[in-house]
From TrEMBL:
Gene field: cobD
PANTHER family: COBALAMIN BIOSYNTHESIS PROTEIN CBIB
Pathway noted in the entry: Cofactor biosynthesis; adenosylcobalamin biosynthesis
Protein name: Cobalamin biosynthesis protein CobD
Signal peptide feature range: none
Location, primary (coarse class): membrane
NCBIfam families in alphabetical order: cobal_cbiB
Protein task: Converts cobyric acid to cobinamide by the addition of aminopropanol on the F carboxylic group.
Sequence intervals crossing the membrane: 51-71, 148-169, 287-305
InterPro entries assigned to the protein according to its UniProt record, in alphabetical order: Cobalamin_biosynth_CobD/CbiB
C-alpha cells in the first residue's frame, strides 16, 4: 500500500502547494533542453532524427537512472511522493483554466484570449467566446492525461523513475514535438517516444472520462471519432472527453500561422464559458476513479501477498 500512500501524499502536496514558483526542476530541465536543441539541431533531414534521439537520451536517461539508484528503501514512500509531486500538474492545470474562464465569464474576451495563449500553441487572437471556451476545454481534457493520469500510471507501474521518465519525455514532446520546418526531424524521436509512453495511459484516461461523464456518448465518440485525430493518443482522450461532456470540440485552428483542418470530436452543443469548470469537474471525478482503482489494486496485492 506504499504506492497508494505516495500517490495520496503527492496529490495532497500538489493541491496545497501547486507547482513551485521558484527552482522548479522542470524549469531548469526545459532551459537545458532549449539550449541543447539550439546547439545540436543543425540537420533538416533524417540525420536530424538521430541527433534528436541522442539529445533526448542525453537529457532523459541520466536523471531517470539517478532516480532509480537513489531510491531509498527505508523512505521510499516519501521519496516517491516527492518525485510524483514534481511530475504532477493538477492544480496548475486548474489555475490556468480558471484564468481563462474568469475573464470570459465577465465578458472580457481579449483578456481571456491572452490567458488562453499561455496554455495552447494555437493562435488565439481571432477566437470567439465559444472558440476560447472550446480550446480551454480541449486543453483541460488533453492535459488531464499529460499532467495527471499519465504520471500516475507510470508511477504505479514503475515507481518514481517511471513517473520521472514520463514527465521528462512529455516535456520534451511539448518543446520539440512540433511539425514545424525546424523541428520536423529533430523532434521526431521526442514525439514518437511520448506517443509510446502514452499508449496505455491515454486509453485509461479516455475510459475514466467516459465513466465519469456521459458514458454512452463518450464511448460512441471514442469508437467512431478517435481515429480522425492526427495523434493516436490525443484522439481517444479528446473524443471520449468531449462526448462525456456532451460537447462538440475541435474544428479548424491556426497553428504557427497555418490553418489546420482538425476533425470535430464529441457530440453535442458548442462550448460555453461554464463548460470550462465542467471539464475540470470531469477530471476530478476521473481522478477519484483512479484513486479507487489504485486502492483496490493495493488491497488485492496485499491479500495475494499474505
Amino acid at each position: 500500500m506504499s504506492t497508494l500512500a505516495s500517490v495520496v501524499l503527492a496529490l495532497a502536496l500538489d493541491a496545497l502547494l501547486g507547482e513551485p514558483r521558484r527552482w522548479h526542476p522542470l524549469v531548469g530541465f526545459g532551459r537545458l533542453a532549449q539550449a541543447l536543441e539550439a546547439r545540436c539541431n543543425r540537420h533538416g533531414n533524417r540525420l536530424g532524427r538521430v541527433t534528436g534521439l541522442l539529445c533526448w537520451a542525453a537529457l532523459v536517461l541520466p536523471p531517470v537512472a539517478l532516480c532509480a539508484l537513489a531510491l531509498p528503501a527505508p523512505a521510499d514512500t516519501l521519496f516517491g511522493a516527492l518525485v510524483l509531486y514534481f511530475a504532477l500538474g493538477a492544480r496548475s492545470l486548474a489555475e490556468h483554466a480558471r484564468a481563462v474562464a474568469e475573464p470570459l465569464l465577465r465578458g472580457e474576451l481579449p483578456a481571456a484570449r491572452q490567458a488562453l495563449s499561455m496554455i495552447v500553441s494555437r493562435d488565439t487572437t481571432a477566437l470567439s467566446e465559444s472558440g476560447v471556451a472550446a480550446a480551454t476545454c480541449e486543453s483541460v481534457l488533453e492535459n488531464g492525461n499529460d499532467a495527471v493520469f499519465g504520471a500516475l500510471f507510470w508511477f504505479v507501474v514503475a515507481g518514481a523513475p517511471g513517473a520521472l521518465l514520463f514527465r521528462l519525455a512529455n516535456t520534451l514532446d511539448a518543446m520539440w514535438g512540433y511539425r514545424t520546418p525546424r523541428l520536423l526531424h529533430f523532434g521526431w524521436a521526442a514525439a514518437r517516444l511520448d506517443d509510446l509512453l502514452n499508449l496505455i495511459p491515454a486509453r485509461l484516461t479516455a475510459l475514466s472520462y467516459a465513466l465519469a461523464g456521459s458514458c454512452a456518448n463518450a464511448l460512441h465518440c471514442w469508437h467512431t471519432q478517435a481515429a480522425r485525430h492526427d495523434s493516436p493518443n490525443a484522439g481517444p482522450v479528446m473524443a471520449a472527453g468531449a462526448g462525456a461532456l456532451g460537447l462538440a470540440l475541435g474544428g479548424p485552428a491556426v497553428y504557427h500561422g497555418k490553418l489546420e483542418q482538425r476533425p470535430t470530436l464529441g457530440r453535442g452543443r458548442d462550448a460555453t464559458p461554464a463548460d470550462i469548470d465542467a471539464a475540470l469537474r470531469l477530471t476530478r471525478r476521473a481522478l477519484l476513479l483512479w484513486l479507487a482503482a489504485i486502492t483496490l489494486g493495493g488491497l488485492i496485492a496485499t491479500r495475494i501477498g499474505t
